[in-house]
Amino acid sequence: MHSPFSRKLAHNSFCILSCQFIAAITSVFVVTMPGLAAEPGSLESHHKSARLVLANARKMIEPTLSPEELTIARSIVYRINGGPGIGAFAAYKDGRRLIVISAGMVQMFDWLYDLATIEFELSRKGCFQEYISYLEDGMIRNQKAIVNGLPLSPVKNPFTFANDTDGQCGRLTTADFIAIPDFGLNKAKAIEASIVFLYLHELGHHVLDHVLETKDRNARDLTKSRDQEDKADRYAVVTALGANYSLVPATPWYLYIAIFGGNSIEAENSASHPLGIRRILSVYDETIDYYDRDPQAWRGELSYQDLLAGLNEQRSQVRALLQSLDERH
Ligand SMILES: [Zn+2]
């Protein structure tokens, strides 16, 4: 069966939309370090990438904000957490606004990009699901270890996993990756866009006044918090486009929320984030709406018609991919 995650998608021809490169981050694809259980310091390259992208993203975005938004953005303390945790959040603590992005999250983006490449670009069918099951087990195990104060156990990256197991991932060499045209560049762009997405989503929570409201966590109801997640996503997309930056290449972020952000109805009922698939599709809806409303906003090389045709095609590819991921459950 033809994979819905077509070569095109894996290849980030996502850069059909302006795909500017704001930070020259290097993507190291062979990491021997253990993930999740990483010793402090071993996430150094991901920590550096996050810091660099965040600094450049702020330079790009802040001049495009309204005076009110800018005041809020400038009052935020931005922090990159070097620990093995995964995630990003916006908070209000001791009278200060805070945005925290973990270096572990950037490592996760790195791995998911490699994993998608192994499955779809290097045609190792079944590798994706096999690795995700392994990863989920490792995450659950380590979560329990943290709670019980036990040492964490290493989780392999997709490359090491492929070479250590006799499953669908098969044996791989670095040459397999190097042979893919522009692999490193496209991967760096995808990781960059994913970090920018995290930043703008959390900025959205501050600007849209979600953070102060959630101080009383008991008052948080599910429908409201899902609605806030959706609004923060849309804020991120539109704010990025206002700076002529597209979040469409953020494939590792899409994969992350498709896998961990509630890709089943059960998860949808229990999680505060809206169904992963819907979150991703709304990125496309919002992008397409943006250019529908204001064709002049498009400043790329492609014709406006080609842009919209490309976006619509990608949206259906993503829909098909996510539906196939959802069928695992
Ligand atoms: Zn959120």
Question: Can you walk through the features of this model?
Answer:
The protein is mainly alpha-helical and 329 residues long. It has helices at 7-10, 44-61, 67-75, 103-121, 127-147, 158-164, 174-178, 183-207, 210-213, 222-242, 251-260, 265-270, 276-293, 304-326; strands at 76-81, 88-93, 96-102. A hairpin with a 2-residue loop joins strand 2 (88-93) and strand 3 (96-102). It starts with 6 loop residues before the first helix and ends with a helix.
Radius of gyration: 19 Å
Quickly give the structural class. mainly alpha
Order of helices and strands: HHHEEEHHHHHHHHHHH
Helix percent reads 55-70%
Overview features:
single chain, mainly alpha, three-stranded mixed sheet, 58% helix, disordered N terminus, binds zinc ion
Q: How would the blueprint of this fold be written?
A:
Elements: H1 7-10, H2 44-61, H3 67-75, E1 76-81, E2 88-93, E3 96-102, H4 103-121, H5 127-147, H6 158-164, H7 174-178, H8 183-207, H9 210-213, H10 222-242, H11 251-260, H12 265-270, H13 276-293, H14 304-326
Parallel strand pairs: 1-3
Antiparallel strand pairs: 2-3
Helix pairs in contact: 2-4, 2-8, 4-8, 4-11, 8-10, 8-11, 10-13, 11-13, 13-14
Zinc ion is lined by residues 201, 205, 229, 232.
